[in-house]
Specification:
By secondary structure, this protein is an alpha/beta fold. The protein has one domain: Undecaprenyl pyrophosphate synthetase. Helices cover about 40% and strands about 15% of the residues. The protein has eight helices and six strands, in the order βαααβαβαβααββα. Strands 3-4-2-1-5-6 form a six-stranded parallel β-sheet, sandwiched between helices. It is globular, with a radius of gyration of 18 Å.
Length: about 230
């Protein structure tokens, strides 16, 4: 394995876009695209872990996705349940701690209970961190943080950051978006201030380890000055 290590990269976030269009191209139901996209998650996560990326965030369901048809949303929750039921053994093997950001209040109680159970596994400083953004909105994250801050006349960047859903997670070094769309779509708007962005033409179900390697190598070429020279 050609390890990419000359530039520190502790957090990679991925906007997994293109499941529905993948299914349409195959003349299959959109549900088949979501299932194929789910199957693609573990190989990509394991590859990032091989590269010593400790924090991995996957944008699985946005607040705006609630506008989709009821049957599609129901199927996505069903896929989430299946994934949670099947992931316990793998997160133990790969020393992964699983957590969620976003508004989970509309999920079934049994799903939330399973999420809470899995969050307790490998919950230590040495574990790899897999964060799923579900029903997540970058704008809502900032608004909620502001509403939760006391003494609002003394708001600072540090204080606001401490109230974000990602307060225990470093900002992404690299954000990858698949699906040939060039935008963040309300994802980690505050946290992405100095993230490197990489956009892939590949639809998420077709995004493989070679495509990921291209993104990681492109990151290595970037010069990160954070406003300095």
């Amino acid at each position: 394995m050609n390890k990419i290590s000359s530039q520190k990269m502790s957090h990679v976030a991925i906007i997994m876009d293109g499941n529905g269009r993948w299914a349409e191209q195959k003349k299959s139901p959109r549900s088949e695209g979501h299932k194929k996209g789910l199957d693609n998650i573990l190989p990509i996560v394991q590859h990032l872990i091989e590269y010593k990326v400790k924090y991995i965030t996957l944008f699985a369901f946005s607040t705006e996705n609630n506008k989709r048809p009821y049957d599609e949303k129901k199927h996505l929750v069903k896929l989430l349940d299946e994934a949670l039921n099947n992931i316990s053994e793998k997160i133990n093997e790969d020393n992964i701690n699983l957590s969620f950001i976003g508004d989970l209040t509309n999920l079934p109680k049994k799903t939330i209970s399973k999420i809470n159970q899995l969050n307790k596994i490998n919950n230590n400083d040495q574990s790899n961190k897999l964060i799923i953004a579900w029903n997540y909105s970058g704008r809502s994250d900032i608004v909620n943080a502001l509403n939760n801050i006391k003494n609002k006349d003394k708001i600072t960047e540090k204080k606001l950051e401490s109230h974000l859903m990602t307060n225990k997670i470093p900002d992404p070094d690299l954000i990858i978006r698949t699906g040939n769309q060039i935008r963040l779509s309300n994802f980690m708007l505050w946290q992405a201030a100095y993230s490197e962005l990489y956009f892939s033409q590949k639809l998420w179900p077709d995004f493989n380890k070679n495509d990921l390697n291209k993104a990681l190598k492109e990151f290595e070429k970037r010069r990160r000055n954070y406003g300095s020279i």
